[in-house]
Amino acid sequence: MPDTGTRSATTLPTLTGVRLVALALAVAGIVVAVRTTVTSTAWIGRVFPGFMILDNRVIASVGLAHWRSTTLPDIYQNEVLAVNDRPVASPQDAYAQVAAKAPGTAVEYRLRRNGAERSVTVATERFEQRDWFLLHGLFLLNGAVFLFAALATFVLRPDSPAALGFLGGGSAIAFFLFTAMDLYGPATFFRLHVLAEAAIPAGMLHFALTFPERHRWSGLRSLGWALTLAIAVAYEIFLYSPEQYSLILTTNMLYTAVVATFFCANTIVAYVRSGSQLVRQRVRVIMVGALFGFLVPAVVLVFAAVMAGDASMNAAATTPFIFAIALAYAIVQHDTSRSTRW
To answer: How buried is 87 (Cβ within 10 angstroms: 0-12 exposed, 13-18 middle, 19+ buried)?
Structure first.
């Protein structure tokens, strides 16, 4: 029998609440994105070390292929102790010393990681417009698409568990990317950034347990969020303790990798075993999204390696937004189970 009236009966009582949640997230996202866009564009034209330093003096795991620092082994997640033998108490100290020098000037940095200290020399560079587009611009693009896709899906399918999961994971990714534009100065949203980072695997797990169909282990969603809460608390406590921060970061990355592996495996199993044409159609859609959203970044990274780094590795962040669009389309266009409750 057709489900005429079923959707209204299940969604109308919560329609106002759904719209208010979506509006609040949209406004918050726009405010953060505008602020971090303004602060990140201030980098254009500045002389910088050739790598980025977080507010806890840890070298961020981000770089472009044409930056000289990317050729150095084990440069990321090191704490910066001194610049040209002058101790630094903050990233601003390091940036200020470097900004006064001409591009191409060799600067010595004393670094520490896992209790071991070493010195490296890196030539200064000027942060150009292309650097902004290849780094911050791609963060902004992908963050905006993930947030819009998550909110649109939630508003159109508020009674879908998958839409709720996508709202959690997509919003976390969006705010993670928006705040990443601010990490290297003035770092206003550093604490919000690590909260979003901690929430990403839990949101992904929530989604994976409800899409392309509800998993028999779907009750583990709450456990996933509990683990995220523990990681988030640890982040906030040890954010300015470089060694502990790097350990927590590694733990969260491992958590994310495990969830991503589960999502891929669960999707394949669902396609093979499910007798539902709806489930198979959903999987086909996200496979297309994965093909264009993640195959291109993989090719770019391989190309960068073949070219001995003479290619922008951050171009790998160009297409993940396609996957977000595919997920939203798979939920909205191919969700006929409209009476499913959260």
So the answer is: exposed
User: Would you list the DSSP string of 12-71?
Assistant: GGGHHHHHHHHHHHHHHHHHHHHHHHHHHHTTTT-EE-SS-B-TTSBBPS---TTSGGGG
Q: Record the tokens describing residue 178, joined without a space.
A: 């928006």
DSSP code of residue 314: G
Spatial strand order of the sheet with 79-83 comes to 86-87, 79-83, 106-113, 116-123
Is-contact 185 237, C-beta < 8 A? no
Count Cβ atoms within 10 A of the Cβ of residue 297 and give its class: 0-12 exposed, 13-18 middle, 19 or more buried: middle
Query: In degrees rounded to 5, what are phi and psi of residue 310?
Result: -85, 50
* Contact call for residues 246 and 222 (beta carbons, < 8 A): no
- Which residues, listed in sequence order, are joined to residue 182 by a DSSP beta bridge? none
The pTM score is 0.83
How confident is the model over 147-198, as pLDDT tens digits? 999 999 999 988 888 888 899 889 999 999 999 999 998 999 999 999 999 9
Give me the phi and psi of 81, to 5 degrees please. Answer: -100, -40
